Amino acid sequence: MFLCPEILFDAGRVPTPCFVLDADRLRANVAVLDQVQQRTGARILLALKGFAAWATFPLLSRFKGTGPLWGACASSVDEARLAREAFGGEVHAFAAAWNAREMAELLPLTDHLVFNSTAQWRQFRPAIAMHNQSRCPDRRIQCGLRINPEHSEGAAAIYDPCAPGSRLGIRRKDFDPTALEGISGLHFHTLCEQNADALQRTLAAVEEKFGPWLSQCRWINMGGGHHITRPDYDLDLLCRLLTDWRDRYQAQIYLEPGEAVALNAGWLTATVLDVVQADMPVAILDLGVPCHMPDVLEMPYRPNVLFLAEDGLPSRAGLPGKQAWTCRLAGKSCLAGDVAGEYSFSAPLLPGQRLAFEDMAIYSMVKTTTFNGLRLPSIGICEADAAGGQGFRLLRQFGYEDFKGRLS
């Protein structure tokens, strides 16, 4: 049920708060992704907006390590630079808009540049053409347009790129076929933590609105949100869809999952500092929810929590009232809403007791802040050692200079 559980509660080895990555789970996830690549010929890229712990890139990248992934996709210049320097392979970049300074920095870093509007494509096309003249033919930047099929799959509006009013992608009514000269592919993104049936419906919507231009594509990028590594994911349906589009349009297919790469591959450790009484017991932890796991407030969602039960074995906290003692888990910042949720435990929590929030490798790590001057969580990694036990390595700790250096 749990990977690396005893390490999470070993105060002598793992500090708190600390993001603890699971190397073996990362390997298992990318092995599933490679099955998709092998069966379909699709190329899967790591979406750095979801997971960018570069110390793990040798587990993921076929160019900088032993992993199977073909490259990474970036949403900014800094992500593109990290992809080029630390991940290798293909570097794809998309943003809602670029400025001239960013474009100058992107040109030597990227292999694919996707534009959110034909106006941006026309603006930067001359600079890209000039840059490509200095590159070898097989290293020239390929350019694409992001399209919006206006097809939503039920995600919360804040995460739905095709919601009404979305600024992301070109709608059919605004699509200008005369701007396609020099464009080699199309990109679309509609999903968020969804199964292959949602992709199937998306592909039908894309064909309905943009079918006449798909056959002109050298490549088609189906974006992210594919929850490929979760247990109930329909891999067979995904592979049929990808193979069908590859054969029908004679195009290289790309996927950009972020969560699927590091799904269930990390925790955030915490220590109970105090238990105070409000409407119910409130356990105050040595972290801040808005600082260290902001998606709990933004989505919102309720992460699973591990604790050591009376028998000394890891156990999962329950819904309120399901176990003997219910409390609210809260952070130490001054934000009144610094609360992770309400949980029940087999016994009252005590100061000094450790907890571990599950599935914290994705998005939480890339979104952390130093609000209130709270220090960023340490980063560590665990994996099986030669003797079959669990080893832990501390990768990074943060201090005052990390807080001070970003403010002026």
From TrEMBL:
<dbReference type="GO" id="GO:0009089">
    <property type="term" value="P:lysine biosynthetic process via diaminopimelate"/>
</dbReference>
<keyword id="KW-0210">Decarboxylase</keyword>
<feature type="domain" description="Orn/DAP/Arg decarboxylase 2 C-terminal">
    <location>
        <begin position="156"/>
        <end position="360"/>
    </location>
</feature>
<dbReference type="InterPro" id="IPR029066">
    <property type="entry name" value="PLP-binding_barrel"/>
</dbReference>
<keyword id="KW-0745">Spermidine biosynthesis</keyword>
<dbReference type="InterPro" id="IPR009006">
    <property type="entry name" value="Ala_racemase/Decarboxylase_C"/>
</dbReference>
<feature type="binding site">
    <location>
        <position position="295"/>
    </location>
    <ligand>
        <name>substrate</name>
    </ligand>
</feature>
<keyword id="KW-0663">Pyridoxal phosphate</keyword>
<dbReference type="Pfam" id="PF00278">
    <property type="entry name" value="Orn_DAP_Arg_deC"/>
</dbReference>
<comment type="similarity">
    <text>Belongs to the Orn/Lys/Arg decarboxylase class-II family. NspC subfamily.</text>
</comment>
<keyword id="KW-0456">Lyase</keyword>
<dbReference type="InterPro" id="IPR022643">
    <property type="entry name" value="De-COase2_C"/>
</dbReference>
<feature type="binding site">
    <location>
        <position position="259"/>
    </location>
    <ligand>
        <name>substrate</name>
    </ligand>
</feature>
<dbReference type="GO" id="GO:0045312">
    <property type="term" value="P:nor-spermidine biosynthetic process"/>
</dbReference>
<dbReference type="GO" id="GO:0008295">
    <property type="term" value="P:spermidine biosynthetic process"/>
</dbReference>
<dbReference type="InterPro" id="IPR005730">
    <property type="entry name" value="Nsp_de-COase"/>
</dbReference>
<dbReference type="GO" id="GO:0008836">
    <property type="term" value="F:diaminopimelate decarboxylase activity"/>
</dbReference>
<protein>
    <recommendedName>
        <fullName>Carboxynorspermidine/carboxyspermidine decarboxylase</fullName>
        <ecNumber>4.1.1.96</ecNumber>
    </recommendedName>
</protein>
